[in-house]
Amino acid sequence: MADALRAGLLGVGMMGRHHARVLRELDGVDLIAIADPGGDPHGVAGDLPILPDIDALIAAGIDIAVVAVPTAFHEDAAMRLAEAGVHTLVEKPIADTVDAGQRMVDAFERAGLVGAVGHIERFNPALQELRRRLSAGELGEVYQIATRRQGPFPSRIADVGVAKDLASHDVDLTAWVVQSDYETVFAQTAHKSGRAHEDMIAVTGRLKNGVVVNHLVNWLSPMKERVTIVTGELGALVADTSTGDLTFYANGTIPLEWESVTVFRGVSEGDMIRYAFAKREPLRVELENFRDAVLGHDTDVVTMRQGLRTLAVVESMLDSARRGEVVTL
């Protein structure tokens, strides 16, 4: 087998500690260096020294890097890694502004390096299975995608609002499962918990392929919900990404004999199937895709260009909410 890829990790906070675990377990990858100016709060370094900064990480001689520091620091770390010739995955969102994200995209494309963004929901087993079934035509024409992502405020998030932290998941997975970009968005936001950024957003929009989309996202609910519903001509597929379950509700084909409902020309209730399939850890699948992209294989890795498109959609949502108008991308 070829030599393992030498991996470096910048940031071992809430997300970085999981990257450390999975990178250590990944075939064909050796985690050789960890850097975090804040030390090692979760004790994940093991026998590796905690390096002080990105320069020390690069000096360790790495082939690939994962950047899991606050969003404001993504651009600086990514630009240094691109300059050093290191394939890089940054946590989502790609950057704190579209301009910063564009500079990152340009730097990695110019250097011929894999630049990826950690939109982990795309690798959730329920959404991977949903994508597979949609591409096989199991819903026929897709009409609508609705997502709900609600729950309590995560104390770890300080630098962005709910749109960039959570709605970005829904934008990425929606565009990916039906393979179409956003065309228009209209959004409304609320600030209910006294922080600088929005903690609730409701979005309606349309994709370039005509699919109607709707996203409800907040940090204000005691009920945690992570649901994606895709409705099409043959029924509906419901993915619950908190459990990894995928359920199909078929349009009914039973003739209606009850007179008062026979005038209704829409669909009726048919069979319901909850699919059984392998449920692998999303982070592991994501990092495998990143590794395989670096090795030159065709993968589902979220490229920096896709991550930038997602950020542009989220910025358009926030712009729409500020102006009270529909925004065309």
UniProtKB/TrEMBL annotation:
One MF term in the entry's GO annotations: nucleotide binding
One Pfam family per UniProt: GFO_IDH_MocA
Gene3D superfamilies: Dihydrodipicolinate Reductase, domain 2, NAD(P)-binding Rossmann-like Domain
Swiss-Prot/TrEMBL keywords: NAD
Annotated Gfo/Idh/MocA-like oxidoreductase N-terminal domain residues: 6-119
InterPro entries according to UniProt: Gfo/Idh/MocA-like_OxRdtase_N (IPR000683), Gfo/Idh/MocA_Oxidoreductases (IPR051450), GFO_IDH_MocA-like_dom (IPR055170), NAD(P)-bd_dom_sf (IPR036291)
Protein name: Putative dehydrogenase
